[in-house]
């Protein structure tokens, strides 16, 4: 079965440094991968989508890479700020004949940026 | 981005009663809506996929008779937790898309259900 794995340990980082999160997947070849941010008690918010033919994508201080050979995506937050503290989730669409595309999430990595 | 409204945000109910949670896409037509459940410090677990006008597709292990999903229109899906028990207490989140995959999903605010 398909698996999406993220580092379950919280990432503590000093303000101003770069946070790097990893998402690994198995038994699947997605056409694209998404990253979301979730704050406590709230629904996830979309951040970035990267397609299989894109090696890198940027949005402000965020950067995502996608290596389909390694089956891995890296998510970077540069010049991190305390407001970046949240849980970050990677997600893939996994297709089934019955339901079509199902957005399926990794376990998430909690990031804590200390001032 | 598009807005998905979910309510109530919090609900406390007595064991044995039923609770309905609504999920509305406010500014787009959602061909597909998803319902997730999230336990503390865990990720989102997909419960079911709901397509407008057809029966929901439930994930393995999710009781169809307990978690009734209705997607009557392109802007509204409901999840009813029937005969709720304390173990059903959780954070329920809906999401919607306006196309069949290959796009971002928009999430509701979530509903914190507590069954006493």
Summarize the structure in words.
- The complex is a heterodimer of chains A (115) and B (116).
- Chain A is 0% helix and 60% strand.
- Chain A contains no helices and 11 strands.
- In chain A, β9 (86-96) and β10 form a beta hairpin.
- The radius of gyration of chain A is 14 Å and the shape is globular.
- Chain B has 116 residues and is mostly beta strands.
- In chain B, the strands form 2 sheets. In chain B, strands 2, 4, 5, 6, 9, 10 and 11 form a 7-stranded mixed β-sheet that branches. Chain B has a 4-stranded antiparallel β-sheet with strand order 1-3-8-7, with no helix packed on it.
- Chain B starts with a strand and ends with a strand.
- Chain A binds chain B through residues 31-32, 34, 41-46, 49, 89, 91, 93, 95-96, 98-108, and chain B through 1, 4, 6, 32, 34, 42-44, 46, 49, 51, 57, 91, 93, 95, 97, 100-102, 104-110, 112.
Could you provide a short overview of the structure?
The complex is a heterodimer of chains A (115) and B (116). By secondary structure, chain A is mainly beta. Helix content of chain A is 0%, strand content 60%.
Considering the chains and any ligands shown, give keywords for the structure:
heterodimer; A: 115 residues; mainly beta; five-stranded antiparallel beta sheet; globular; B: 116 residues; seven-stranded mixed beta sheet; 11 strands; 52% strand
Helices, strands, pairings?
The complex is a heterodimer of chains A (115) and B (116).
Chain A: E1 3-6, E2 11-14, E3 19-26, E4 32-38, E5 45-51, E6 56-59, E7 62-67, E8 72-77, E9 86-96, E10 100-105, E11 109-114
Parallel strand pairs in A: 2-11
Antiparallel strand pairs in A: 1-3, 3-8, 4-5, 4-9, 6-7, 7-8, 9-10, 9-11
Chain B: E1 4-7, E2 10-13, E3 19-25, E4 32-38, E5 44-51, E6 57-58, E7 67-73, E8 76-81, E9 90-97, E10 106-107, E11 111-115
Parallel strand pairs in B: 2-11
Antiparallel strand pairs in B: 1-3, 3-8, 4-5, 4-9, 5-6, 7-8, 9-10, 9-11
């Amino acid at each position: 079965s398909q698996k999406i794995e993220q580092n379950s340990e919280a990432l503590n980082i000093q303000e101003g440094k770069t946070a790097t999160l990893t998402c690994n997947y198995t038994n699947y070849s997605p056409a694209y991968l998404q990253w979301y941010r979730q704050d406590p008690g709230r629904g996830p918010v979309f951040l970035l989508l990267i397609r299989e033919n894109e090696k890198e994508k940027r949005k402000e201080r965020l950067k995502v890479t996608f290596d389909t050979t390694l089956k891995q995506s890296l998510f970077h937050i540069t010049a991190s700020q305390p407001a970046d503290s949240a849980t970050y989730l990677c997600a893939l669409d996994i297709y089934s004949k019955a339901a079509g595309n199902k957005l399926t999430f990794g376990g998430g990595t909690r990031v804590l940026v200390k001032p | 981005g598009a807005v998905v409204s979910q309510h109530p945000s919090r609900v406390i109910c007595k064991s044995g009663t039923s609770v309905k949670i609504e999920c509305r896409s406010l500014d787009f037509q959602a061909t597909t809506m998803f319902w997730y459940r999230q336990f503390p410090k865990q990720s989102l677990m997909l419960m079911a996929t709901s397509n407008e006008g057809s029966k929901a597709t439930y994930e393995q292990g999710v009781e169809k008779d307990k978690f009734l999903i209705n997607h009557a229109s392109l802007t509204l899906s409901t999840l009813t937790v029937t005969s709720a028990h304390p173990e059903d207490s959780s954070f329920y989140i809906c999401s919607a898309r306006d196309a069949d995959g290959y796009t971002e999903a928009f999430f509701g605010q979530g509903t914190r259900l507590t069954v006493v």
